[in-house]
Every structure is written in structure tokens, then in C-alpha cells.
């Protein structure tokens, strides 16, 4: 079992990782961050993506779908923004920003799935 900072550090080893945050869905606050630097305000991005998750959950509920959200992908010209809902804690999600030219999206999704299983709150 890994702690929050260990999981975030592991996420930063994913090919093309620019920054990662573990976000509390209820408040929009970061539980921890890694990377990002001056090019990316992870706290602001995490808070904004909380609204994306809320909107998707609302649509899912209105459609009467019972499935859990696994992940949400936002593709930009130069980046992928991957939101991975935790299955061990439904109130938390990983927010991973990847350099699109260096990332393998399929592998990134698998790595976040692995980190989800290993993270211990």
C-alpha cells in the first residue's frame, strides 16, 4: 500500500507526465500535487476539473445509468488531461496532465488504475 505522496511521485514517472494532483471531489481541494511547475497551476486546474466531474455525474444520473465513471479524457492540441475516479474512495480523483507528444495514453490509464488499487488513505 502506498501513501498519497508516493502515489503522486509514481504518477510522475508515467511517460509524458507534466503534473498530477489527487483531488477531493466534494471540495475541489488538492490532497496533494507533484510536478506542474510554472507552466501549470495544478490547484486551479484541479478545482476547475471538479466541475467537469460534477457535470458528468449529473448527466449520468439523469440518464439513469448505474455505471461508475472510470475516467474522463480532455484532449488539447499539446496535452492530455486525464481524470481518473478512484474506486477505493468515490470522493477522490487523480488529475494527470500529459505531454501529448511524449505520452502513451493507454499505458497512462493502466498506470493510474494500478495506483488507484495501491493507494491507502
Structural summary, described in words:
The structure is a single chain. Strands 2-1-5-4-3 form a five-stranded antiparallel β-sheet, with helices on both faces. It has one domain: Beta-Lactamase (2-Layer Sandwich), CATH 3.30.450. The protein is built from three helices and five strands, in the order αββαβββα. 29% of the residues are buried. It has 121 residues and is an alpha+beta fold.
List the helices and strands and how they pair.
Layout: H1 4-11, E1 17-24, E2 30-35, H2 42-62, E3 71-75, E4 79-85, E5 92-99, H3 105-118
Search tags:
single chain; 121 residues; alpha+beta; Beta-Lactamase; five-stranded antiparallel beta sheet; 28% strand
Q: Could you give the order of the helices and strands?
A: HEEHEEEH
- The number of helical segments is 3
Multimeric state: single chain
Strand order of the largest sheet: 2-1-5-4-3
**What does the radius of gyration come to?**
13 Å
The level of helicity is 25-40%
CATH class: Alpha Beta
Per DSSP, what share of the residues sits in E-state strands of 2 or more residues? 25-35%
Task: Please summarize the sheet with the most strands.
Answer: 5 strands, antiparallel
* CATH architecture heading: 2-Layer Sandwich
| Domain unit count | 1
- Tell me the structural class: alpha+beta
CATH homologous group name? Dynein light chain 2a, cytoplasmic
Q: Which regions are unreliable across 5 or more consecutive residues at pLDDT < 50?
A: none
Shape: globular
What is the first-to-last residue Cα distance?
Answer: 9 Å
Amino acid at each position: 500500500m502506498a501513501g498519497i505522496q508516493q502515489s503522486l511521485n509514481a504518477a510522475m514517472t508515467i511517460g509524458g507526465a507534466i503534473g498530477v494532483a489527487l483531488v477531493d471531489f466534494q471540495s475541489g481541494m488538492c490532497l496533494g500535487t507533484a510536478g506542474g511547475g510554472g507552466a501549470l497551476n495544478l490547484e486551479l486546474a484541479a478545482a476547475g476539473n471538479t466541475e467537469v466531474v460534477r457535470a458528468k455525474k449529473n448527466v449520468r444520473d439523469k440518464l439513469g445509468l448505474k455505471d461508475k465513471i472510470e475516467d474522463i479524457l480532455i484532449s488539447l492540441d499539446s496535452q492530455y488531461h486525464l481524470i481518473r475516479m478512484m474506486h477505493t474512495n468515490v470522493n477522490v480523483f487523480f488529475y494527470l496532465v500529459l505531454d501529448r507528444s511524449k505520452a502513451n495514453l493507454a499505458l497512462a490509464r493502466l498506470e493510474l488504475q494500478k495506483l488507484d488499487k495501491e493507494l491507502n488513505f
